[in-house]
Specification:
Length: about 140
């Protein structure tokens, strides 16, 4: 169930609790209470075997981690270096279910167009593409 459906359930008395994002917060009726629970931070995900991390890995001590999360503002990479690689992206938003947006994962496609060569809505397959070093992904940090 996506966030707009969850909110509809609350409004219609069919549910007691719903998790939504700020994107639909303005749709919460005034007679209902909303409370921020957590802030989701999106991260660039890459495995140690990904070419983007090859130089980083060779210049540091041995690291057994198979996954790196990089905060883009503090990333050691130039955006042009990141955009040179293939991304795995969802076909539809994991939050609202929409498939009609140019970037279903929240990436700013208008400013930073990327190669969306792999489209996948399966979290397990997405993780496989990342862990194998075949693709980067823009994922929530949680």
């Amino acid at each position: 169930m996506y966030e707009s459906q969850s909110l509809d359930q609350i409004v219609n008395g069919l549910a007691d609790l719903a998790f939504i994002t700020g994107a639909i917060l303005h749709q919460v009726p005034v007679h209902l209470h909303s409370q921020p629970v957590e802030k989701i931070t999106m991260q660039l995900a890459a495995s140690q075997s990904h070419p983007l991390l090859a130089n980083l890995s060779s210049n540091s001590t041995k690291n057994t981690a198979v996954h790196h999360s990089l905060s883009l503002p503090s990333s050691p990479f130039l955006i042009s270096d990141i955009l040179a690689h293939v991304f795995v992206v969802p076909e539809q938003s994991p939050f609202c279910g929409k498939a009609d947006t140019p970037s279903c994962d929240g990436w700013n496609e208008a400013c930073y167009p990327r190669t969306q060569q792999i489209v996948c809505n399966d979290d397990g397959l997405t993780a496989s593409f990342i862990h194998s070093g075949q693709a980067l992904a823009y994922l929530p940090d949680g």
